[in-house]
Specification:
Elements: E1 12-19, H1 30-45, E2 54-56, H2 66-72, E3 78-80, H3 88-101, E4 107-114, H4 116-121, H5 147-162, H6 166-180, H7 194-198, E5 202-204, E6 207-208, E7 218-226, E8 238-247, H8 263-274, E9 283-286, H9 291-300, H10 309-312, H11 331-334, H12 342-354, E10 372-379, E11 384-392
Parallel strand pairs: 2-3, 2-4, 9-10
Antiparallel strand pairs: 1-7, 1-8, 4-7, 5-6, 8-11, 10-11
Amino acid sequence: MSASSSRLPRKVAVVGISLADCGRVDDATPYALHAQAARRALADSGLDRSVVDGFASAGLGTLAPVEVAEYLGLRPTWVDSTAVGGATWEVMAAHAADAIAAGRARAVLLVYGSTARADIKAGRRTSNLSFGARGPLQFEVPYGHSLIAKYAMAARRHMHMYGTTLEQLAEVAVTARANAAANPEAMFRDPITVDDVLSGPMIADPFTKLHCCIRSDGGCAVLLAAEEYVPDTAKAPVWILGTGESASHSTMSEWEDFTVSPAAVSGRLAFERAGVRPSDIDLAEIYDAFTYMTLVTLEDLGFCAKGEGGAFVEKGRTGLRGELPVNTDGGGLSACHPGMRGLFLLVEAVRQLRGEAGTRQVHKAGGRLPELAVASGTGGWFCSSGTVVLGRG
């Protein structure tokens, strides 16, 4: 099939998705997980690897994505190495969709893999207190202001301003674990209670251990392609309907409001470009390194008003059978979190829209499959955000 198109812009679809081995992976390198995920995504798409002329990767190698593409045997003519933390993959998907729509690429492969858990277990790496000590960050580093402390401060501010409670934050973790119970690939599936969350060891006030994401190994891949390749794919397409991205701050002193994340901007842009409203969305996949991230992102995407996130996450409203299913695979709090988890959000959203989520499959009234999903990634300490609206059929 010719890659040429008689009109621009072209529609763009997700045509292949995959997970590499996830959870506890002691016998693989990050490169091997990249390759495993890439092969599986191509197989899922049914397309030949020769169609892939775009490649996006971050977090591995000195010259990502050049080094990773070489390892995979690819010679792309379009590349992206954007690195903005957990939001990286939603931002990359936006860039890839724009490139394909403009005729700059036929198909773009996004791949991620990490052995974060195995590396710490084997002593190959240790935890970091800071992302860096140069530039603006140098003014915070001497005070030992770690990443988790920054999230904890933001959560405390929300509690102070809006009366959000520890129990409401704990509900986010409890629901994520309940969702994970239906996911055979989730790392932790045993049920937990609000009391379990509240009574756990303190990590950074107000976050106890279960308020924080797990540490796992794993990888995944997503293949985007131009509309003319969709008839040749093995699965029904999931279309990229709208995207948005936003950068906020690097230092806490430049963050104007601890209770507003950059998803307030990226979400608005994505919904406007998709021509839909938050009320149209059937499920949401949200970056959840900490419970507060889920709560405040729900507010900023417009699923509830500012300050009402605490009430919104109560009583299972974000569970698989709730009003708005959120992080249907268990999220970073229970399923997997090998590092920059944003690509996993896209994989799970596509699985749900395809109807391939097994016992955790979300259904609309009458047993119909969901039609619209949103994936919203957050980077750093609410430093960046990328939001993607996806649609079925």
